[in-house]
């Protein structure tokens, strides 16, 4: 016999049902900001203080709108966000701490949610992104670096570099004029200069 109003089974923990935000929230914790050559701005914030952690990506048409938080579009993530970059026209790459990498379409009309065109899941969270001008980009996850090609419907991994760094890679940046060149820095106290054309692509110094 069940008693009305009783939690069943009796030892089941009483937990609140947490739901994602229905409207974008600019949280106190700001994780990244990026501007492109057209003056557009993207800003990532995350809620890391409450019970339910989530992130919000905002897109602004220009610096003035960003200053007043008058966003053009947004994306609400069910995870905290770690980085984002402009890529192609009207597209943004978003890295989430749950290991997902999303290609988002920025709508033409304001106050609308960005559409996720493609989503891939990695083995771990992406610490940072860097992009080239030819629809290629790189990510660092743990001690690995992945290089990708991207188009409007897919993200394809083409190269993975492992075992050059021995600890978490915290930063990566590309030479925008040469897709073979980029740099990385890691918690192993090593900064590497990379050239994919070389037999040993990474040269590094312990700092």
Mind explaining what this structure looks like?
This is WD40 domain-containing protein. One of its GO terms (cellular component) is methylosome. InterPro entries: Methylosome_Comp_WDR77, WD40/YVTN_repeat-like_dom_sf, WD40_repeat_dom_sf, WD40_rpt. It comes from Oryctes borbonicus. The protein is mostly beta strands. It has two domains: 23-122, Lipocalin; 127-207, Thrombin, subunit H (Beta Barrel), CATH 2.40.10. 2% of the residues lie in helices and 49% in strands. The protein contains one helix and 17 strands. The chain has one helix spanning 63-67, and strands at residues 29-35, 41-47, 54-60, 73-77, 81-87, 91-96, 100-105, 112-113, 115-121, 128-131, 136-141, 144-150, 155-161, 169-174, 181-186, 190-195, 202-206. Strands 1-2-3-4-8 form a five-stranded mixed sheet. It has a four-stranded antiparallel sheet with strand order 5-6-7-9, with no helix packed on it. The model has no long low-confidence stretch (mean pLDDT 87).
